[in-house]
Write a structure and sequence with these properties.
Blueprint: E1 6-9, H1 12-26, E2 29-30, E3 35-37, E4 50-52, E5 56-57, E6 66-68, H2 69-81, H3 85-98, E7 110-112, H4 132-149, H5 153-156, H6 158-173, E8 204-207, H7 208-228, H8 231-252, E9 277-279, E10 284-285, H9 291-298, H10 306-319, H11 334-339, H12 344-356, H13 374-388, E11 391-394, E12 399-402, E13 412-420, E14 423-430, E15 433-440, E16 444-451, E17 457-459, E18 462-464, E19 467-471, E20 474-483, E21 488-493
Parallel strand pairs: 12-16
Antiparallel strand pairs: 1-13, 2-5, 3-4, 6-7, 8-9, 9-10, 11-12, 13-14, 14-15, 15-21, 16-20, 17-18, 17-21, 19-20
Length: 517
């Protein structure tokens, strides 16, 4: 069942965007028992017959009777916020169950809404569409949904855990050749491509989005293993993540002297010289690579610092330039790239840019308008809550953190009835404060973060000394409070009369950006 998610704000543009996204996303949902065509596509609009559908939703081209691994991974949080937990679990398990030994532990690319494999992308166990980053993103999606729902099934289900464990072990081992990076074939999508950038003719065997998603899959597997009590395996996965990130930053992504002279911009290596892939003969590929470029900061594999900041500038410039993606759904990642690094103004600009494309025709005529492509609506919902509201969930531990990511155009925003764990919550940011209401469900531990370094905050009007931290270049002040069911709590920056003496130096070290906490 879809939820009752709703928004209020002093920004009419945000309200219009969010209402459009919620309304449109709900048109893509199929409840259990719905009957419709299977294997429908641009060549066979009526498909090969009909079947009763599982509880699912469109994730991919609207004219195909299928949900796709890449689109699903990107839409899942938005779907959760719309109350589609059952649909998410059904679709996630379908992909995990398809990652059999006969498929090389690679999940299929697309499933019909009845759970069968869609024939336009599946021609048999040795010939089906395979894009390496999707495998790793599905592992990360298991964790992201677990953090939102607290549903132990996502951890304990033997099919899901076998998929996650096998992906970061056997699946990777089969695809490495002298380096820790899983490789594609260098061929097309039916051969097993290393990147989501399907239009590239570079024949990459290693790609920036591949290594970045592999890194996140290791971190996800480590946290899932910890939840299962498999601490040795969790430690192993965490170490693999650390080593892969070190290898990326110190070796993989660097232009070597033998590769030619790197350009300089007066501050160090030019961002266009960052390596974002390798061909089969070992040649590094630099420059703009769309997904191969923006997935690296999206997944936070680039070390925080000037190099990362320059690369973000480069992505913003190139994504708006002559080699911009032709398809609107590609842009849906860009708000998340910039929210992840505290660039609220840039993230908001890309959110509005995606929304502005909704009535334009899609490059694939059968798809119709851009706005009918499901990814646009689902991701705008997710970006509002995880990006603008800055909500980082940990439902299994009954806790969450928030850090407003509001641009200058938005002074106040409230989203009501956010599904979280076993209940609902409402979150509001306005000016220099935040209010959390636990409408239903268990008591929550709320780590309220407010931008900037402040000497004092107030909790429901009472002064409190915060801890100041810096994460990935973003400085914030935080305090933790308990929010009981049916209660609201407000945390604000203290006015001078409310301030209390700050604590002395020597606070705890900033949180590890890799931990997601």
């Amino acid at each position: 069942m879809t939820g009752t998610l709703r928004i209020t704000s002093d920004c009419a543009r945000l309200v219009a965007m969010f209402d459009w996204a919620v309304r449109t996303a709900r048109t893509h949902v199929y409840p259990a028992g719905w009957t419709g065509p299977v294997n429908a596509d641009e060549h066979r609009p009526l498909g090969t017959g009909t079947a009763p559908y599982l509880p699912t939703y469109h994730a991919g081209y609207r004219h195909r009777s299928a949900f796709y691994a890449r689109d699903f991974a990107h839409q899942a949080v938005g779907a959760h916020l719309l109350g589609l937990a059952l649909e998410n679990a059904t679709m996630l398990r379908a992909f995990a169950a398809s990652a059999t030994a006969g498929h090389g532990h690679h999940p299929v690319w697309a499933c019909n809404f009845d759970g069968t494999f869609h024939t336009i992308d599946y021609h048999g166990p040795e010939r089906f569409v395979r894009e390496l980053p999707a495998v790793f993103e599905l592992v990360e999606t298991v964790l992201r949904l677990y953090r939102w729902t607290g549903d132990r099934t996502l951890v304990d289900d033997p099919v899901l855990w076998a998929f996650c464990r096998t992906t970061v072990t056997e699946f990777v081992r089969r695809r490495t050749a002298g380096s820790p990076v899983a490789r594609g074939t260098g061929g097309g999508i039916f051969d097993g491509t290393a990147s989501y950038h399907e239009l590239s003719e570079e024949r990459l065997v290693e790609a920036g989005d591949g290594i970045a998603t592999q890194y996140r899959a290791y971190l996800a597997a480590a946290e899932l293993a910890t939840a299962r009590g498999e601490h040795a395996f969790a430690a192993r996965c965490a170490e693999l993540a650390r080593e892969l990130k070190r290898y990326f930053n110190e070796e993989w992504s660097r232009v070597r002297p033998a590769d030619g002279q790197a350009r300089r911009n007066g501050r160090g290596e030019h961002p266009a010289d960052t390596v974002r892939g390798y061909t089969g003969d070992g040649r590094p590929v630099t420059g703009w690579g769309r997904e191969g470029s923006w997935f690296m900061p999206l997944k936070r594999i680039i070390d925080a610092g000037p190099r990362n900041e320059r690369y973000l500038d480069y992505i913003d410039e190139e994504a708006a330039g002559p080699d911009a993606p032709p398809n609107a759904e590609a842009y849906t990642y860009l708000p998340e790239v910039f929210f992840a690094h505290g660039r609220a103004e840039t993230a908001w600009r890309w959110m509005t840019a995606v929304h502005d494309l909704r009535d334009r025709p899609h490059p694939v005529p059968e798809q119709g308008r851009n706005g009918d492509y499901p990814e646009l609506s689902f991701t705008l919902v997710g970006q509002t809550v995880e990006g603008l509201l800055g909500l980082l969930p940990d439902a299994p531990a009954h806790r969450l953190s928030t850090l407003p990511g509001l641009p200058g155009a938005i002074g106040r925003v409230e989203v009501r009835d956010i599904p979280f764990g076993d209940g609902l919550l409402t979150l509001r940011h306005d000016g220099d404060g935040s209010t959390l209401t636990r409408s239903t469900g268990a008591e929550l531990s709320w780590e309220a973060r407010l931008p900037g370094a402040h000497t004092a905050l107030t909790v429901d009007g009472q002064p409190r000394t915060p801890e100041v931290r810096t994460d990935g270049g973003v400085t914030y002040s935080r305090t933790t409070v308990r929010v009981a069911p049916g209660r609201a709590c407000t945390v604000r920056v203290a006015r001078p009369a409310e301030a209390v003496p700050p604590v002395g130096p020597g606070g705890r070290r900033p949180r590890d950006a890799d931990s997601g906490r």
